[in-house]
């Protein structure tokens, strides 16, 4: 009461208590606490404030854990629309919320909904970081998977080839993102009926994983 509901120390205490509830399996209690915190933050600091966005992320994550995907989706969509209006589409908080919503869409298999968000996020990453940055490559691979699932294998291959080329310059051969890029390109090539081109990529990724993780590891 002395500090106020939106004071930093109060928010930290609420987050800690919500985390404790989650560890104890009291997910409904944790959700109620985070819901109350979000309402207070929206009223006191506004939807565009970083603390409000953090509260949205925590609540959406908890909803997702509970299988309340529709509720999490609605929360993130409302937050994204508000941030786009108040902060602009290229603000870091807006982009962060777009990434969270995209991840949720992908987990739900809603590729049509995820695609425009990924396209805009990739454009943002390329403007901010350049075409070969780790964040850009990661977004590029997500978009490539969506294109491939939608049947646009040629575009998936184009994006994956760029990702592989960027990672060859930027990362060590066994870096996780580099191996993901090779796997994605191999999948695209196989989907296009190019097994001869896909084979060396698959073998390269296999040998790198075998060397770093061991032959009996699940990812190998």
From TrEMBL:
- Protein name (record): Kinesin light chain
Stored Gene3D superfamilies: Tetratricopeptide repeat domain (1.25.40.10)
- The domain of life is Eukaryota
In Pfam terms, one family for this protein is TPR_10
- Mind telling me which InterPro entries this protein's record contains? NLR-like (IPR053137), TPR-like_helical_dom_sf (IPR011990)
Which residues are in coiled coils?
A: none
């Amino acid at each position: 009461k002395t500090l106020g509901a939106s004071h930093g120390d109060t928010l930290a205490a609420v987050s800690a208590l919500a985390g404790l509830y989650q560890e104890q399996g009291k997910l409904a209690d944790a959700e109620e606490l985070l819901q109350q915190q979000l309402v207070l933050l929206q009223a006191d600091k506004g939807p565009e404030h970083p603390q409000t966005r953090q509260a949205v992320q925590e609540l959406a994550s908890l909803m997702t854990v509970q299988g309340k995907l529709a509720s999490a989706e609605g929360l993130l969509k409302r937050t994204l629309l508000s941030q786009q209006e108040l902060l602009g589409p290229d603000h870091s908080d807006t982009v962060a919320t777009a990434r969270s919503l995209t991840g949720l869409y992908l987990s739900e298999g809603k590729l049509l909904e995820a695609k425009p968000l990924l396209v805009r996020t990739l454009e943002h990453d390329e403007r901010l970081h350049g075409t070969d940055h780790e964040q850009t490559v990661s977004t590029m691979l997500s978009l490539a998977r969506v294109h491939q699932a939608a049947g646009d294998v040629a575009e998936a291959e184009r994006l994956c080839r760029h990702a592989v080329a960027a990672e060859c310059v930027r990362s060590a051969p066994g870096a996780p993102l580099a191996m993901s890029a090779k796997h994605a390109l191999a999948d695209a090539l196989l989907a296009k009926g190019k097994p001869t081109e896909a084979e060396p990529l698959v073998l390269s990724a296999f040998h790198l994983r075998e060397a770093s993780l061991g032959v009996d590891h699940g990812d190998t």
